[in-house]
Amino acid sequence: SSSSSVILLPTALLLAVSAGYAAATWCICREGINDAILQKTLDYACGSGADCNPTHQAGPCFSPNTVRAHCSYAVNSYFQRNRQIPTACDFSGTAAVVNSDPSTAGCMYPASAAATTPVAGGTTTIPNG
């Protein structure tokens, strides 16, 4: 009977590890911030290593064609490429970490850095100007 308890321990451990990975996080641009400020955030993220190609015209994440939607995709890309460190989703207070998937039909938001390349820095204080 002792052999059955040996089998249960690794199974329980495996379930605990799997549950930890289920709590995915994303970074999105906050609501209630005007488009001019979100455009600065979008430009900063794209210029700092985020993959913004999917938000370009004819890209899978071009629609909805709003500054906030494109901003959210860009900051999430940056956040994932920086291994989801909290400082990589601040952008001077214009972005926030969420636990619900912001993906839309045809536009998949990455949930990990697995398929992305890390970018240098990891801090997101947007320079004034």
From TrEMBL:
GO cellular component, as recorded: plasma membrane; plasmodesma; side of membrane
Signal peptide limits: 1-24
UniProt protein name: X8 domain-containing protein
Boundaries of every X8 domain copy: 25-109
Matches recorded under PANTHER family: BETA-1,3 GLUCANASE, PLASMODESMATA CALLOSE-BINDING PROTEIN 3
Stored SMART domains: X8
Keyword Oxidoreductase appears in the UniProt entry: no
Membrane topology: Lipid-anchor; GPI-anchor
Gene3D superfamilies associated with the record: 1.20.58.1040
UniProt keyword annotation of DNA-binding present: no
Entry superkingdom: Eukaryota
InterPro entries: X8, X8_dom_prot
Compartments where located: Cell membrane
Main location: membrane
Keyword terms, alphabetized: Cell membrane, Disulfide bond, Glycoprotein, GPI-anchor, Lipoprotein, Membrane, Signal
